[in-house]
Amino acid sequence: MAHLRTQIREAVAGALTGLTTTATRVFQSRVYPLAVTDLPGLLIATESEESALIEMSAPMLMERRLRLQVVALAKGTADVDDTLDQICKEVEVALAMPCAALNGLAKSIELTSTEIDFDGASDQPTGRAALRFEVLYFTEQNAPDVAQ
Amino acid sequence: MAFTEDLAPFFSVSDFAVVGTWKGTTSVSGIHDDDYVTPFGEVEANAAMFTCDAADVVAMAQGDAFAVGGVSYVVAGVAREHGVARLKLRRT
Q1: Which residues of B touch A71 (CB under 8 A)?
Q2: Nearby residues of A102 by Cβ (< 8 Å), 6 or more positions away
Q3: φ, ψ for residue B70, nearest 5 deg
Q4: Quick one: average pLDDT of A18-39?
Q5: pLDDT surpassing 80 at residue B1
Q6: pLDDT at B2 exceeding the cut of 90
Q7: Which residues does chain A have within 8 Å of residue B90's beta carbon, measured at their own beta carbons?
Q8: Dihedral (C-alpha) B40, B41, B46, B47: value to the nearest 10 degrees?
């Protein structure tokens, strides 16, 4: 099986696919810019993770706190801020605990911050909302693909 | 002796200039750029600009309608410098 981090990212992508505003325009760890036809859309990336041993006898249990980012992108002539807020609402509801998609993978997922920004350099206003989540999950040290 | 620049050759439609339409009625010749830009590094987009003789758009203001290349825009900004105006265009 894949690393649990991969499973969690895939599960989040699944939970966010089909939302009213962003539909199937959901992309994981994408490094190239979205086309206009991909908007409004979501980018999902696992940014970093803190981990610590919480049992000293083998197999050692690890507590892992994964920082997962969901970026909402929208573009338009008006009300880009409203569109971003609507997307945020849909994402927050979809990932609220108990999150069925993460059942059996993670203990919790928590929204820790939202940063909103706008850009007027292009021919239509573009907006970005970055939602940062912390996902708590446990694995044994020698089995990072199996949730505990 | 003061030097007066003749900008007409820079905005000649015989060369690289095209004709835009200001407020649906006034023709303005200038250089139309539609550069590729990537807001936030995450979205593909274009940044439309129109560079022309400032004397041709003295009364132009933000919000004015402007059309060029078959695309309708709104003037989002007017930068005037050394007799040249650079219009930042927002697609409608």
Answers
A1: 42
A2: A8, A11, A12, A15, A109, A135
A3: 80, 10
A4: 96
A5: no
A6: no
A7: 77, 123-125
A8: 50
Q: Are A119 and B90 an interchain contact pair (Cβ–Cβ within 8 Å)?
A: no
Token readout for B65 is 């309608």
The pTM score is 0.89
The DSSP string of A92-147 is: HHHTPSS-GGGTTT-SEEEEEEEEEEEE-SSSS-EEEEEEEEEEEEEEETTEEEEE
Q: Cα angle at B47 between B43 and B50, to 5 degrees?
A: 175
The interface pTM score, or ipTM, of the predicted complex is 0.82
Q: pLDDT-derived band of residue A56, with 50, 70 and 90 as boundaries? A: confident
Residue for token digits 């059942």?
A: A103
C-alpha distance from A40 to closest chain B C-alpha (Å)? 10
Taking an 8 Å cut-off on Cβ atoms, the answer to whether A123 and B42 are in contact is: no
